[in-house]
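Per-record layout

source: Desulfolutivibrio sulfodismutans
name: Class I SAM-dependent methyltransferase
length: 355
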Amino acid sequence: MLFEIAASNAYMSDNEKFLLSLCAASLPQGSVVVEIGAFLGGSAHIMLLASAGRIVLHSVDIEDKIPNDLRSHRNFTFHLGTGAAVASREALEVDMLFVDGDHSFRGIREDILAFWPQLRDGALVVAHDVLNMQHLGVRIFVETLLGNGNLTKPVHADTMVAARVDKRVALPAASDYVRTARKLSQVFGRPRSWIAEGVAPAVLLSKAYVDMPPPAEDLFLVGKGKRGDFVHRFLGLDYHAPIDSWEARRTDARYYVCSAFFPRIFTHLVWDVRVAPENIFDVTPQVISRWMLQDILNNKAKRLLNAYQVECERELVSGLLNLLSESEVYRMYENGFLCDLFLYLTASFPPQATI
């Protein structure tokens, strides 16, 4: 069994696989487990294997990629939809909730709070990527539940955290999440100064600093990932959605590249699309951080707040900005955490539609 668990196609480390399997193996006969974020069924396979048939597993995802052998398991039920949608139509008494779905503050908040009334007192909550710095929204939410006493006796393996539910404690207020975010801003940051260091050698094709552009019809963002999506909302570019480099057509346009693959994209735009090199800009995390700093200090963070379209995220960002002093904002800028924090609150994947 140990080797089969390690060989599972779940997207997690071996240590995380073993922690998840131990949590499932600890459950008594007839326990109900809910998993949010099934993907290819790797984590579901781990839990069913480790529990030796003692659990009933409800797996939730917005896409159905479950293999047939898992789908036919007598203790497995797949639900197509978001966590909130499934919780609203299924009356369950849940002994363990495993959350590995939407990796944003909004996403994990909606998933856990949707199932919170159905969790038994003392139930297990297991969350993946809590200690992953690229998913700070997940960390802020889970750390707040731990600090508030809603989750107790935590154990962790790599980025995964497991804890027990205490239903006697009232759920956190918005101000509690703000305090957690501020604590993280005071503790974490990259161990270097972007101001002193400048750009890395790999991106010397680009300018060390890129001015924040006003909206214009000839401006295109290249990069459909998290960085491109955030910059699109931050700059208020309503007329052009972010594009992939192969979609670039206009030789006279300006292209702001929001991708770690800037050298490759630069080469494609210059040689294949025939864009002038001076019209291609590298929107690095350093650049975004400088734009954020300017917006916070000179524009009352209007662009930053407009980048968050979900109420709970806007509330968190607004509350945090009201607490931070100017010196704290500068320190976050210098160590890189300003960009990390505000960029990684938002979803890692496109927003989920309720099914």
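summary: The first strand starts at residue 31 and ends at 36. Residues 200-283 form one domain.
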